[in-house]
Design brief:
alpha/beta; 11-stranded mixed β-sheet; D-Maltodextrin-Binding Protein, domain 2
C-alpha cells in the first residue's frame, strides 16, 4: 500500500465510511455505542485496518442522500450500489456482493414472469433513488414508473393506487408479500444490485487500493464469511471476481 492511497482515503487521519442504513441486508443491527453493524460496516472496518487507521461511520437514511454527499467533504469511502448515474461523481470498485431485484404482483394478477411487467399500460411502484430504481429508469421502455419515498412509501402507492407491480429487493418483497395475502413474488430478477465501495472522483491511488481490496476480500472468502456471520446467506451473494 502506498502513502498516496492512505492520503486519498484517510486525509483527516481516520477513514470516514458512508453507510446506507436503508439496506437491511447490509446493515443488520446496531452496536451498543450506536454504530451500524453488518456486512458493509464490517467491510469498512477491514479497509481501515489495512490502511492502519480508525474508522468513523457517516450514516445516511437513503442511498440517494449518500450519493448526493459525494460532492461534499463528508465521507472518504461510500458503501453503496454501483450505478452509472452515481458514477458521475464516484469511482466504484467492482461489486463485492449482489442482491436480486424483482417484482411483487397483487392478488389475481395474470403476470407470471419478470419480462411481462414492462408492457404498455402497466404501472410499477418503486422506491425513489434506490439502485434498482436507477436501473429501471434506464431500462423500462413501456410501463410507467411511480416513484415514492422509501420501500414503505412504494408499498403504499402499490396497494392504494392498485399498481401492476412493486419493484424491490427480493428479501424485502418477502415482507411485503406477508402484508398483502395472495400477492406473489415473481421468479427471476430484472437486475442484480451491485454493492460496491466508492471513492470521490480524483483519488486515483485510493480507488486502485479499493479495487484490489475488494477482489482480495471476495477471493479470500472474507465477504462470504461476513454474509454467514450476519445471517444473510441466501439473500445476499458474493459477487463474481472482476474480469481482466
Amino acid at each position: 500500500m502506498s502513502d498516496a492511497a492512505r492520503a486519498d482515503l484517510a486525509p483527516t487521519g481516520v477513514l470516514r465510511a458512508a453507510i446506507n442504513l436503508s439496506n437491511f441486508l447490509l446493515v443488520t443491527g446496531k452496536a451498543a455505542n450506536g454504530d451500524p453493524e453488518g456486512v458493509s460496516p464490517s467491510m469498512a472496518v477491514e479497509v481501515a485496518r489495512r490502511l492502519g487507521v480508525e474508522v468513523v461511520y457517516v450514516t445516511f437514511k437513503t442511498p440517494g442522500e449518500l450519493a448526493d454527499a459525494a460532492t461534499e467533504d463528508r465521507w472518504d469511502i461510500g458503501l453503496i450500489g454501483a450505478e452509472p448515474a452515481r458514477a458521475v461523481h464516484i469511482d466504484f470498485t467492482a461489486a463485492y456482493s449482489e442482491i436480486e431485484a424483482t417484482y411483487l404482483v397483487p392478488p389475481g394478477s395474470n403476470i407470471t414472469t419478470v419480462d411481462e411487467v414492462d408492457r404498455p399500460g402497466r404501472h410499477i411502484a418503486v422506491p425513489a433513488r434506490a439502485a434498482f430504481e436507477l436501473w429501471l429508469t434506464d431500462n423500462i421502455r413501456h410501463a410507467k414508473l411511480h416513484r415514492a419515498t422509501g420501500a414503505d412509501g412504494a408499498f403504499k402507492v402499490f396497494t392504494e393506487q392498485h399498481m401492476d407491480a412493486l419493484a424491490g429487493l427480493r428479501a424485502g418483497l418477502g415482507k411485503d408479500a406477508e402484508r398483502l395475502p395472495g400477492s406473489r413474488i415473481l421468479d427471476g430478477q430484472f437486475a442484480a444490485v451491485q454493492q460496491a465501495i466508492g471513492v470521490r472522483k480524483g483519488r486515483s491511488a485510493g480507488a486502485a487500493f479499493l479495487r484490489e481490496f475488494v477482489e482480495d476480500a471476495k477471493k479470500s472468502g472474507f465477504v462470504g464469511e461476513l454474509i454467514k456471520r450476519f445471517g444473510v446467506v441466501g439473500r445476499l451473494g458474493v459477487a463474481p471476481l472482476a474480469q481482466g
